[in-house]
Specification:
Blueprint lengths: L1 E2 L3 E5 L2 E4 H6 L2 H15 L5 E2 L1 H8 L10 E6 L4 E3 L2 E6 L2 H4 L2 E3 L2 E3 L2 H11 L2 H16 L5 H4 L20 E2 L5 E4 L5 E4 L17 H16 L7 H10 L7 H12 L5 E7 L5 E8 L4 E5 L3 E2 L2 E2 L4 H16 L3 E5 L1 H6 L1 H16 L1
Parallel strand pairs: 3-12, 5-7, 15-18
Antiparallel strand pairs: 1-2, 2-3, 4-5, 6-7, 8-9, 10-11, 11-12, 13-14, 14-15, 16-17
Helix pairs in contact: 3-5, 5-6, 5-8, 5-9, 6-8, 6-9, 6-10, 8-9
């Protein structure tokens, strides 16, 4: 990608406003890359793997750095930041349209990503897939943000006119010389908010079975054991990627935590902890939780309420440990040391 004072070259014939590109989130930048790739292809394709996951709104450990696509009757390979995976045509027939672009369906996308992820990221995806099913949000239509809708369709071919602006603020145009300019202000692929929905646990178990069946249809390969373990351990009650990542760390250490545990404080008030080890009377809270990539902002009143809650639980004989994203992902040994120390104290 080359930059000039006003425009950034995204690909041959595609440019975007430099200030806007600088301000893009990694997920939004990847979504734009997908639109550019799609506009440049002349044969059928579908987004796949992590690229499809971005458009389905699935939480990923990090934004993809390459656009993943499937093209029938093509050899696998990498060219100019695009990874092409060979397909047999079924992926095209079963593709869905998400945010204006064709992508592998949700189940295929989840299992593809599970097979390519480490256990922590795989559990985040599997938890989220079961949560979508439990919240009856498997279709993007009622739950997903539509910031991407119409964006790809707005790309104008050379000679179709100058820049045109849509009501959403996205503007894309082309010049008679064949260059295409892309300028927009969308926040791409913000995942679906299903954390406040009532959960249908039977639907979640059906999704677990569907994911397992999809994995079983594939030949055994590197990544299958991790995918299988993530599907088996997935829990729709996980309320954030941080909770899933923390639980993955605990499971690998042989520590099984109950999620969304109901506990009564000394005042008689009932609270819900992110996790708990009931026998040791230890509660676990994950702070600064990322709800679909957006960090929750703590107000001063919220901090006061949290201190009162912690005091009430402590007076009732519960120990409480807190962990942040930086601790869980960057200092896992420290997290396990703190948790095991609290568990030992709880047993006394």
């Amino acid at each position: 990608m080359r930059s000039s004072e006003k425009f950034t070259r995204l690909a041959r014939g595609f440019y975007a406003d430099s200030n806007w590109v600088t301000a893009l989130t990694p997920r939004s930048k990847h979504a734009l890359d997908c639109f550019v790739v799609g506009a440049s292809l002349r044969s059928p394709y579908v987004l796949s793997r992590e690229s499809a996951a971005v458009f389905h709104g699935l939480p990923l450990g990090r934004a993809p750095t390459r656009v993943h696509i499937i093209r029938p009757a093509r050899k696998s390979g990498r060219v100019n930041g695009t990874v092409t995976h060979a397909g047999k045509g079924a992926e095209i027939a079963e593709a869905v349209t998400v945010g204006g672009l064709p992508a592998t369906n949700l189940v295929t996308t989840v299992v593809d990503c599970l097979c390519a992820a480490r256990f922590g990221d795989a559990l985040i995806l599997a938890d989220h897939a079961l949560r979508l099913a439990a919240a009856h949000c498997l279709s993007p239509a009622p739950c997903a943000r539509t910031d991407l809708e119409g964006f790809g369709e707005s790309i104008m071919l050379p000679g179709q006119g100058q820049v045109s602006t849509t009501p959403s603020g996205a503007s894309i145009g082309g010049t008679g010389s064949g260059e295409r300019f892309v300028r927009t202000a969308f926040d791409a692929a913000v995942p679906i908010d299903v954390y406040r929905a009532d959960l249908d646990m039977e639907a979640a178990e059906r999704m677990r079975g569907v994911l397992g069946d999809e994995l079983a249809k594939r030949p055994a390969r590197h990544g299958s054991p991790i995918a299988r373990a993530a599907i088996a351990e997935a829990d729709p009650r996980a309320e954030s990627p941080l909770e899933s990542r923390g639980r993955a760390l605990f499971l690998k250490a042989g520590l099984s935590m109950e999620l969304q545990y109901s506990v009564e404080g000394a005042s008689g008030r009932v609270y819900y902890a992110d996790g708990a080890f009931p026998e040791e009377r230890v509660l676990v809270e994950f702070d600064g939780r990322a709800k679909y990539g957006r960090w929750a902002e703590a107000t001063s009143q919220a901090l006061v309420n949290e201190r009162d809650r912690e005091k009430d639980l402590t007076n009732a004989g519960w120990g409480l440990v807190r962990f942040t994203w930086d601790q869980v992902t960057g200092r896992p040994d420290e997290v396990l040391r703190i948790l095991r120390s609290a568990l030992r104290r709880g047993k006394k």
